[in-house]
Design goal:
Order of helices and strands: HHEEHEHEEEHHEHHEEEE
Number of strands: 11
Shape: globular
Distance between the termini: 31 Å
């Protein structure tokens, strides 16, 4: 494990030497246009057209709030989360804290769910590996185009943290399966970037027959530059939505 982490840290150091330092700037005090410039330097296109013909632009508001890169803004960079089809009706898709269930769309056009959205059902305690995780027909294809090293970083890198009432482990261990088979359960919504978090979604079925989903939050790659090689910080911040 130490060798794997060391190699990953070396890759990050190389990235810093290749990309300009502004790529590691925080979005908190940046203007909308500065954020757009920052993300486009990381090879994100300014706009995305979905299969249904709808066009959305990078959303600087989401990046500023949560460091997640999604497309859910207008051409003038107005926040369109409130009008996304997946966030209708508002009564079911905006929580008591003002968070929207869906943040927008990834660069591949997949829906990106919000990891801080208040859960529909209060998370139960217990062991994640004992939950009845179910496969998803679109999970495997969601990893298409994601480099193998990134897939392993996201699925079996380190322990995934949920809440204080629930234990934590890697995605592979939670599922109790192989790395390749895990991709039939874990849906890659967005990969982490140098200064943007990634997300993974998985479904499980309860004893009553209800199907619930969890949204995993994968911290930005740049954050790893400040972690020690021997005591790495958790790769996942994880909550049920």
């Amino acid at each position: 494990m130490k060798k794997r982490i060391t190699a990953f840290m070396l890759i990050l150091v190389l990235l810093v030497s290749v990309y300009p330092l502004p790529l590691f700037a925080s979005g908190g005090n940046m203007t909308n246009q500065e954020i757009m410039t920052l993300l486009q330097k990381q090879e994100y296109k300014a706009a995305l057209t979905l299969d249904n013909g709808s066009t959305y632009f990078l959303n600087p508001h989401v990046y500023r709030e949560q460091h997640v890169v999604v497309y859910s803004a207008s051409g003038s960079l107005a926040d369109l989360r409130s009008s996304l089809p997946e966030n209708q009706p508002t009564s079911k898709n905006k929580d008591k804290n003002g968070n929207w269930r869906v943040l927008g769309y990834s660069k591949n056009g997949t829906v990106v769910y919000n990891s801080v959205f208040v859960p529909d059902v209060k998370p139960a305690g217990g062991n994640l590996s004992t939950r009845n995780w179910v496969k998803n027909s679109g999970a495997k294809s969601s990893w298409k185009g994601v480099k193998p090293e990134m897939q392993r970083y996201m699925l079996e890198g380190q322990r995934a943290t949920v809440t204080a009432a629930v234990d934590s482990d890697t995605i592979v261990n939670i599922l109790g399966t192989s790395f390749e088979n895990a991709k039939h359960y874990a849906i890659c919504q967005a990969v982490p970037g140098l200064r943007s978090d990634g997300t993974i979604k998985m479904y499980h079925q309860t004893a009553s027959g209800s199907t619930l989903y969890w949204t995993f939050r994968v911290p930005e790659l740049g954050a790893q530059l400040y972690s020690t090689i021997f005591t790495p910080s958790p790769l996942f911040r994880f909550c049920q939505c």
